[in-house]
Write a structure and sequence with these properties.
Distance between the termini: 14 Å
Number of strands: 6
Number of helices: 2
Radius of gyration: 16 Å
Number of domains: 1
Oligomer: single chain
Structural class: alpha+beta
Helix content: 25-40%
């Protein structure tokens, strides 16, 4: 499903995203695992307040238990980040 956001909602979303501090990438990425997340924007209480879809991690997990997170996870071998994000979104929701 595709959600249309009006011009005011889009401008607000751009403003909110621009307010985050972008972290620099580490110089050495060897040994890091590739992962992807889905950034799902939905209408909020009114159309000028877009909201992000989050998932709640299980309390039984060893790491990041019971935390709120964007739906996502590791990329399988040969999988693009987009394919991984869509697969994880389907699995988690």
């Amino acid at each position: 499903m595709t959600l249309s956001i009006d011009a005011a909602g889009r401008a607000r979303l751009v403003e909110l995203c621009a307010s985050f501090t972008r972290l620099s990438e580490p110089a050495d990425t060897q040994g890091l695992k590739h992962a992807a997340v889905a950034l799902v924007v939905v209408d909020g209480a009114n159309k000028h307040d877009p909201c992000l879809l989050l998932t709640r991690r299980s309390a039984k997990l060893r790491s990041h238990a019971a935390q709120w997170a964007l739906p996502g996870g590791r990329c399988d071998p040969g999988e693009t980040p987009v394919d991984a994000a869509l697969r994880e979104l389907d699995e988690e929701l």
